[in-house]
Every structure is written in C-alpha cells, then in structure tokens.
C-alpha cells in the first residue's frame, strides 16, 4: 500500500501536478475527479482554484498551454492548503471502487512513482565504478517511491499510461515502465534536473533521457573514437610512469573518461557554434589534457620533465609543468576550427574559476558582446575542492549577472572520491560535491566513469544544454584515483580498502575494449594495435625530447598582445597624457548635463552644476571630475573601459556618479555611455558582494582584453584582503611564473581618517612587499590631475603592468586635492611632487618624504609654523621606485641634514619598511651621510584605532614629530 507522505505532495512536486494538468487539458476524463474538479475550478465551495477571472484554463484545447504548469503550481503553492488535501485523500483510498476509478487511482500512483524516479532516481544510480553501495539514505522518503515497492504483483501486470517516457508508446505494462525508469534514472547516470524552475528546460531534458533510456546509441566509428581517446589517455600516463618514475604528474588514471568527454564537447560544440573554449583546471589530468586535447606536443612535456639545460636561465621564475597554460587551434572531425586556451593555474585550488570566466567574457565582448555561444568556458574541478572552496560559490553567483554573464559554463568534476587523503565524509556535508551548484537552478549530471558511453552521452546533453539555454551545467564524473595524491604518495596508509579494490580494477580502456570486442565492434587485435600506435607516438616524442630539448618559454607577446610590453620599465617612454582644452572642456560639459526630460535628484543637480562651473573654468576640478575625465578622454579615443566593484556605479563615497538615476522615473542615464559614435565601450557595474570572485574575474578579463582599461574597485581598501589569493598568486606573479601580462587596475580607498581598523588601510605594505622585477605599479596620487594622468598613462603606455592605486576618501572633497583645468591639458603623471618652502632653498635642512594624503597635513602644519627649513616631497608612485626623482630632490637642497619618512600608518605597515633600504645611506650634495628617521604611528597589530579622538591625537603627534627637531618622541 503506498503511503504518499506529506513531503511528497508539497510544492516541490510541481512536475507531477503539471503532468496531470497536461493530461487533463487533453482529456479531462483521464484524471481523477478530484483533480478534474481542481483544474476546472468547479469545486462547489469557494472560488475557482485555478486561473484568474476570465483567463481561466480550459480543458480540451490541447497541449502547449504554456502557462498551464505555472497556473497549476500557483494553485498548489498559493497558500490554499485545501487544494492539495482532497486530492491526497483520493489517492490513498482504494476500497470498493468502480474499475475505472481504480484505474485512475493506479495511474495517479504510477505518476507519483514516475515523478519519484525523475526527482530522486539519481540517489539510487550506480555511479561509483568501484561499485560501493551508496550511502544510506533511508531518511529520504521519496526514495521508496522510486521502485516497484508501491505496487502489488497484479498491479505490475496492468497496462498504464506511459506519460511520455517512450517516444512512441502511450500505454505499457507497469512492470516494463518501471524497469525502463530504473535503467534511465538509476543506471550509470544520475541526474538532478527536476528542481529546475523552468518547466521548458525540464521538458527539454526529459525526452532526451527517457526516450533513449539515457544511453548513447553510438556508431562503430564513434565507439572507436572513444576507445582511441581512452587508449591515448592511459598510454600517456603509463609512459611517463615508467620513464619518469616518482615524478609528480597528477595522472588522470582512474578518470580517463574525461578525455572522450572533452573530445565530445569539442566535436558537438563545433557543430553548435562554439569557436573558442577557455579551460580552467587544476593539477589532476592536466598534462593529459594538454597533449591529448590541446595537442601540445608530448616532446615539449617530456622536455619539461627533463628540465632546462641551463638551470640559471630560470632562476626565481617559471612554474611547475602541471600549472602551465597553453593554447592551440584544434579542428573537429567535420572541419570546424576551435581555439582552446587552457588557463595558467596556481596551486590554489579553484581560484582559476573566476579568472576563466573573466577571460571568456572578454573574448565574448571582443567578438560582439551579444552572442555568448561562440566562447565557452569550461571549468574542471576536483571533488574535494569544489565542495569546500568558497571561490566556487562566489563565481557561480556571477553566472547570471549582467556584468559577468558568460552564457553558461560547463563544469566537470573529476570526482575521484578522495581529496589527497581525505574521504568524502570528512570533505563535505552534502551528498554530492556539486551541491553548491544547485544555487544556480541548473542540471547536474552524475556519471559512472567506467561507462565511457554514458560519459559521452551526458557530455552531449551538457554541451547542447549550455548552447541552447545559455546556462551553466555540471557533470560530476565519478571515478577513482589509481595512485596516491601524486605518484610518489602511498594511498594505502589511509584508504587501504579502497586501494585494495583499485589494485584489482582494470583501466577503463581495457573494460571498454572488452565490451566492444563482445559487441563485435572493435576486435581485440585492433584495440591492441591502437595501443601500440599510441606507445609509438609517445616514444618518438620522448626520443625527440632527448635529442633536441624543446623546453619552450611561453611568450607574452602573441596574438592580441602584439604591441604590448612587459619586463622592466626601463626604456618605456613616459607618454604625454594631457588632453587639449578644446577636447577636454566639451567632455566635462557633457558630464555636467543630463538628457532632456531627465530629473536629477536635487543633490545630484548641485553636483552637476559644479561640474558645469569646472568646465567654465570657474572652480578647479575635483577628484570626481579628474577620474571621470580620464575615462571620458580614453573612451573618446576608442579605448574600452570596464569598471566594477561594490557600489561602484555611484561610488562608495558618492563621488563618482557614473550612473545617474531619474528621481521621478527611476530611469538610468550613463553619461560615459553617451559619448557618441566611435567612442569606446564603457562598462560599469555594481559587483556582488565578493572580492575573490570579482577581482579574479577582472584579472581574467584583463588577460584577454589588453586594449581596455580594466579597473576593480574595493569598497574600502582592506576588503581586498578577501581577494588575497588573486593578488598574490595571479596579479603580482603571473608574469614571473607564466609570462602573462595584465594591466588590471585596483582602486583601493586608503587613508587614516579615524574610521577604525577596517576602513583605514588598503594594506599598502603588502603590495610593496610583493613588488619586485617591475611586476606591478603602486601609486598613491594626491590630486585630481594626478589620478587623471595616472589612469590615462595606464591605458596609453604599451607597458602592461597591474596598477595598484591607493585612492582617497576624505581627499575626494578636500579642496587642495582639486586642480585647475590647466593641470589636465598638458603634462603627465608626476611620480614625485616637490613642495619646497617659500623662500631660499639653501635654507632647507630637512626633507620630509611621504606618500598620500598626509602630505596635506604636513603642508598645513609647515605653513602654520612658518618654518622655511623644511621641504616636503610626496612620492606619488612608490613602485617602481622613482629613484631619479628622489635623487634630484635630495640634490636640490644643498644644506640638507636629515631625511624624515612621514606616514600615517603604523610603523610595521605603510611604506616605511619598503623605503628604508631605498633611502638609507643617501648623502647630501656635499657628501654627508643623511640620517633617516621615522615619524608615524607606533607599530600596531591592527591598522588603526577605533576612536576618532584617539585618531586625531595620533595624527597631531605624528605631524608634530615630523616637524620638530631631533628624535621624535611623540610617535
Ligand atoms: C586552496 C588549496 N588548499 C590546499 C591545497 C593542497 N591540495 C592540493 S590537491 C589537494 C586535494 C584536492 O582534492 P580534490 O579537489 O578532490 O582533487 P584531486 O586531487 O582528488 O583530483 C589538496 C588538499 C591546494 N592546492 N589549494
Ligand atoms: Mg578528488
């Protein structure tokens, strides 16, 4: 006797009700009277339950009533608890009833079981190649429904409605229907798709799985192709295993089906309009994918195993072979060309995910920005990492956002059911490692890696789904790891039983070859010949690598990157970044205007009026004008600008106002997107509340759009801490490790204003610690003109380096930080700004060196004291260190007796540690050694005090210390 539980007739079984509803529309008599009553709204008590007013649904008008399911769903979920209750009562009553009613009741139960298979069958699927039982899931009530159990032997013999499970048969024996459902949903493929909100998507997938029993129907040549792919996969691994014993390679062994899956994705993708694929993957199987999918010649890989002939060439740089990226063009069997890029990857698992998305988005924008189908991002995860790394959730959350959409990502999890030595039970709280992807309302397939045809079938579905619905899709390739975490690691220490089973488990290529021999498709001899051919292929490459080592360095200057430069800054010309007044002023005027009929908020109106006054030369240009003009002038000359960050459209501190909102209508106007024909594209987006995911995305974007000015802004600078991995592993190190250039700009609000430990510091010290070999530019501009020239320089110079900008908060509105129009119309970014005292420079005995906003405090204090022995100089650029300018500054004051480094930050933070070796030991014009002293806050464990008054006291003391003679004791 079935016992439909409460959970079963809940809001989640919309599809079951949809099915009934569809049947009722076609033939009202085919459903139980209680449902008929419900659907037709003819219940005597109360108002109709379905539809609203005149638009009530009518039966008998055929399928395709597009709003049917939604209407039915509303009725059940709409808070009218009475709707489902009578139906449930009917479903369980099988007493003395007429035959037709009994049949209808049976059909209702069949429909429930059918629904249970579709919804929960995956929990029973045989997806583990090691054949271990699925974890106990008795607590999941629906699961009992996905079986024969709810039916008596007599009922199993009855003929029922097949509910479209078959392409061509409406009525079948229940027993047969159930076994077909078992094969479809509980075989080597488990699929989570019934939770998709959109019934069109469920109904797209359903027949593709049910009409085929979720199996591939491959031609002999397709089967041969699969076998070939598997054979090359494991021959490659076996070859390295014997030739480079004990070397780490993170083999794909146990998960070889990945290779035919990727082959399938490319083959089908090519047919469905994919022109480029951007792949992100970690260590596992990477070498195999490089050679067997991207066609990296194996002799190059073997040369990497052999190492450089001259080790000195790579001192302090380069990366391990299983992190190297690569790109190539492959041609599918029907002649479609696909460009594939495998992203360079740090060891930090999963962090490449947002980078891949950013790269894909950049490629899509460069193509036309509309049809995202041409560029497909593919991310290959590990099971332990997918479940546990937060960056995955951050990146998945970008998937549908207008600023980040990449038209859907294909995810494959190499689920070898282990993470290093950790079992799944200790690695996640969810049943599947893919649970996090459920948030996206996408299908998730779980497939047994020992059934390569099932793997290929699923990959076909996934690829087609992505191309059709522009949605993410996940394939969980359940497999095993033949060796330890790496090949030198003994797994039996920790997983003795699992590894005992694995030792006796043949490779999938062998299993598949046997199947094909049994089917008479590929003979054992042919399979063996394939293997010999693969061996020869790798042996030739191996010999080749020995004879002529092919260790090739990645080049930074190919394709899109032609014309751009990395390396040392020396020899790179400093561009003129001023813009003639006749071009500048109209842009400023444009920024001050709104379209006709647009009503700005009163306060916004005032801001715009001020911009107008700036354009007329009545008042100096503030920070907002300087920054916006940098974008406007670059856009005008055709440069693409992309700016994202938390609340960036307005600006956290309200200074930017890049997106204006009509106070009456809410309509939006973006002045920088209205610069007329020929202007570059301006993208500005408020980002979700993510640092790692979003910064990683922008880094990726910058890799594939060198012509653009790409900026990521932090809300407060220290929130960039959340993206530390992206900064350390990608931004500052990519050129050193992988020869990859990026011009990404980070805007990080920084400055001590009494806002507390977490809103003061962008951790300038960290960027300076990581600065070496001209890998990055670290700047702290103090005026609107300076930020204007700096941002323009970043886009105009062919030298592509990440730029870290300490941006202001209080300076945004500080008068001294404004600059007259003339400061924008010529000149360039000044790395050092000199502020000598009024009067004779020969009198100067002390030079206060500083960076950032503290300069204004020093200037004010000096003016107040009238001390003309003190000179002040601001380093507007800290790295690359402005050596020549500092030397000139010191030489400028012949009577100099000491140097003082002044900073707002505590002694263990800010630039102090960085400048010591660069300033200590300097001599005056007369050759006297200049003492260097420090004036700033004491060393501290947290960046700042939380008390405004304490802050003010500290600030006064440090300024006093800087200006007073002798050793400062006020710090
Ligand atoms: C963020 C991060 N933490 C830890 C590690 C060290 N580590 C490298 S691989 C690995 C296990 C990964 O397991 P899984 O994701 O299942 O991939 P598999 O190696 O099994 O293919 C660990 C812990 C790392 N590389 N990155
Ligand atoms: Mg794993």
Question: Can you characterise this structure?
Answer:
An eight-stranded mixed β-sheet has the order 3-9-10-8-7-4-6-5. The termini are far apart. The longest helix is centred in the first third of the chain and has 24 residues, at 220-243. The protein contains 33 helices and 24 strands. The radius of gyration is 34 Å and the shape is globular. The model is unreliable at 1-12 and 43-95 (pLDDT under 50). With 971 residues, the chain is α/β, with parallel strands linked by helices. The protein binds thiamine diphosphate and magnesium ion.
Hetero groups: thiamine diphosphate, magnesium ion
Subunit arrangement of the protein: single chain
Assign a percent range to the helix content: 25-40%
| Helix and strand composition category | alpha/beta
The span between the termini is 83 Å
- Widest β-sheet, arrangement of strands: 3-9-10-8-7-4-6-5
Radius of gyration over all CA atoms, rounded:
34 Å
Number of helices: 33
pLDDT averaged over residues: 90
Share of residues in strands:
5-15%
**How many strand segments?**
24
Shape: globular
Largest sheet: 8 strands, mixed
Regions with pLDDT < 50 over 5+ consecutive residues? 1-12, 43-95
SSE topology sketch:
Blueprint: H1 14-26, H2 33-40, H3 68-77, H4 84-92, H5 99-120, H6 153-156, E1 159-161, E2 171-173, H7 174-185, E3 189-192, H8 199-210, H9 220-243, H10 258-271, E4 276-281, H11 286-292, H12 298-306, E5 326-331, E6 337-342, H13 352-367, E7 375-382, H14 383-388, H15 390-396, E8 410-415, H16 424-427, E9 444-448, H17 452-469, E10 473-478, H18 496-503, H19 508-518, H20 524-547, H21 581-591, H22 602-615, H23 623-636, E11 641-645, E12 660-661, E13 668-669, E14 682-686, H24 692-703, E15 709-713, H25 724-731, H26 734-738, E16 745-749, H27 764-769, E17 777-779, H28 784-796, E18 803-807, H29 822-825, E19 832-835, E20 846-850, H30 854-865, E21 870-875, E22 877-879, H31 883-892, E23 898-906, H32 912-919, E24 932-937, H33 948-963
Parallel strand pairs: 4-6, 4-7, 7-8, 8-10, 9-10, 11-14, 11-15, 15-16, 16-18, 17-18, 20-21, 20-23, 23-24
Antiparallel strand pairs: 1-2, 3-9, 5-6, 12-13, 17-22, 19-21
Helix pairs in contact: 1-3, 1-5, 5-7, 9-19, 9-20, 10-17, 12-20, 13-24, 15-24, 21-22, 21-23, 23-28, 24-25, 30-33
The protein binds thiamine diphosphate (TPP) and magnesium ion.
């Amino acid at each position: 006797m079935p016992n439909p539980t409460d959970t079963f007739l809940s809001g989640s079984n919309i599809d079951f009700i949809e099915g009934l509803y569809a049947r009722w529309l076609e033939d009202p008599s085919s459903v139980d009277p209680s449902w008929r009553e419900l659907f037709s709204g003819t219940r005597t008590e109360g108002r109709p339950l379905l539809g609203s007013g005149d638009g009530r649904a009518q039966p008998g008008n055929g399928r395709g009533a597009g709003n049917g399911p939604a209407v039915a769903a509303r009725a059940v979920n709409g808070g009218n608890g009475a709707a489902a209750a009578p139906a449930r009562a009917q479903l369980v009553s099988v007493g003395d009833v007429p035959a037709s009613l009994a049949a209808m009741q049976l059909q209702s139960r069949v429909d429930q079981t059918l629904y249970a298979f579709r919804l929960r069958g995956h929990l029973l699927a045989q997806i583990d190649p090691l054949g271990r039982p699925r974890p106990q899931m008795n607590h999941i009530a629906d699961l009992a429904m996905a079986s024969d159990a709810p039916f008596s032997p007599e009922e199993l013999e009855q003929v029922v409605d097949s509910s479209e499970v078959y392409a061509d048969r409406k009525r079948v024996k229940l027993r047969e229907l159930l076994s077909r459902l078992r094969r479809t949903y509980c075989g080597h493929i488990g699929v989570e798709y019934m939770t998709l909100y959109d019934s069109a998507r469920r109904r797209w997938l359903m027949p593709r799985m049910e009409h085929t029993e979720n199996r591939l129907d491959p031609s002999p040549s397709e089967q041969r192709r699969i076998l070939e792919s598997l054979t090359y996969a494991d021959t490659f691994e076996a070859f390295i295993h014997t030739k480079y014993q004990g070397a780490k390679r993170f083999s794909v062994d146990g998960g070889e089906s990945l290779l035919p899956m990727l082959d399938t994705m490319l083959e089908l993708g090519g047919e469905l309009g994919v022109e480029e694929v951007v792949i992100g993957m970690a260590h596992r199987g990477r070498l195999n994918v490089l050679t067997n999918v991207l066609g990296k010649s194996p002799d190059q890989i073997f040369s990497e195993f052999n190492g450089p002939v001259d080790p000195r060439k790579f001192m302090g740089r380069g990366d391990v072979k299983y992190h190297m990226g690569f790109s190539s063009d492959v041609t599918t069997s029907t002649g479609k060309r696909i460009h594939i890029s495998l992203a360079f990857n740090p060891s930090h698992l999963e962090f490449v995910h947002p980078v891949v998305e950013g790269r894909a988005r950049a490629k899509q924008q460069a193509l036309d920005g509309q049809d995202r189908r041409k560029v497909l991002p593919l991310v290959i995860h590990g099971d332990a990492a997918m479940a546990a790394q937060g960056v995955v959730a951050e990146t998945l959350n970008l998937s549908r956002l207008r600023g980040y959409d990449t038209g859907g990502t294909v995810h494959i999890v190499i689920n070898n059911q282990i993470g290093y030595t950790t079992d799944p039970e200790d690695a996640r709280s969810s049943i599947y490692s893919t649970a996090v992807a459920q948030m996206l309302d996408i299908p998730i397939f779980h497939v047994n890696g020992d059934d390569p045809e099932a793997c290929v079938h699923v990959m076909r579905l996934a690829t087609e789904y992505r191309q059709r619905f522009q949605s993410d899709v996940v394939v969980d390739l359940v497999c095993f790891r033949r060796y330890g975490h790496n090949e030198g690691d003994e797994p039996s220490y920790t997983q003795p039983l699992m590894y005992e089973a694995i030792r006796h488990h043949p490779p999938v290529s062998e299993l598949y070859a046997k199947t094909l021999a049994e089917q008479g498709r590929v003979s054992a001899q042919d399979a063996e010949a394939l293997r010999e051919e693969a061996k020869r292929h790798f042996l030739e490459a191996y010999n080749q690598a020995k004879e002529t080592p092919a260790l090739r360095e990645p080049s930074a200057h190919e394709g899109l990157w032609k014309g751009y430069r990395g390396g040392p800054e020396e020899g790179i010309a400093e561009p003129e970044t001023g813009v003639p007044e006749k071009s500048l002023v109209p842009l400023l005027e444009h920024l001050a205007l709104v379209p006709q009929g647009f009503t700005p908020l009163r306060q916004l109106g005032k801001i715009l009026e001020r911009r107008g006054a700036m354009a007329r030369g009545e008042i100096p240009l503030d920070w907002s004008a300087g920054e916006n003009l940098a974008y406007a002038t670059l856009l005008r000359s055709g440069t693409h600008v992309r700016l994202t960050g938390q609340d960036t459209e307005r600006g956290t501190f309200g200074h930017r106002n890049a997106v204006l909102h009509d106070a009456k209508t809410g309509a939006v106007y973006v002045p920088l997107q209205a610069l007329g024909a020929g202007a570059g594209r301006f993208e500005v987006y408020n980002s979700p509340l993510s640092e790692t995911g979003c910064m990683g995305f922008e880094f990726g974007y910058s890799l594939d759009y060198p012509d653009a000015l790409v900026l990521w802004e932090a809300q407060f600078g220290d929130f960039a801490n959340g993206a530390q991995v992206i900064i350390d592993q990608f931004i500052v190190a990519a050129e050193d490790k992988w020869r990859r250039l990026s011009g990404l700009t980070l805007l990080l609000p920084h400055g001590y204003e009494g806002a507390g430990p977490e809103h003061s510091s962008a951790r300038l010290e960290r960027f300076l610690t990581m600065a070496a070999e001209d890998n990055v530019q670290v700047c702290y501009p103090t005026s609107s003109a300076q930020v204007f020239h700096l941002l323009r320089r970043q886009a105009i110079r062919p030298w592509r380096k990440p730029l870290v900008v300490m941006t202001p908060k209080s300076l945004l509105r500080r008068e001294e930080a404004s600059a007259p129009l003339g400061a924008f119309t010529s000149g360039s970014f000044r790395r050092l700004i000199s502020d000598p005292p009024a009067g004779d420079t020969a009198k100067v005995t002390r030079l206060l060196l500083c960076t950032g906003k503290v300069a204004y405090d020093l200037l004010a204090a000096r003016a107040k004291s009238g001390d003309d022995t003190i000179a002040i100089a601001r380093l507007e650029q800290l790295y690359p260190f402005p050596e020549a300018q500092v030397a000139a500054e010191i030489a400028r004051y012949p009577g100099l007796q000491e140097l003082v480094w002044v900073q707002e930050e505590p002694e263990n933070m800010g630039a102090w540690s960085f400048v010591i070796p660069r300033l200590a030991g300097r001599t005056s014009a007369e050759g006297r050694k200049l003492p260097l002293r420090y004036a700033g806050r004491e060393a501290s464990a947290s960046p700042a005090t939380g008390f405004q008054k304490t802050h003010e006291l500290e600030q006064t003391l440090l300024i006093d210390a800087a200006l007073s003679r002798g050793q400062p004791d006020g710090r």
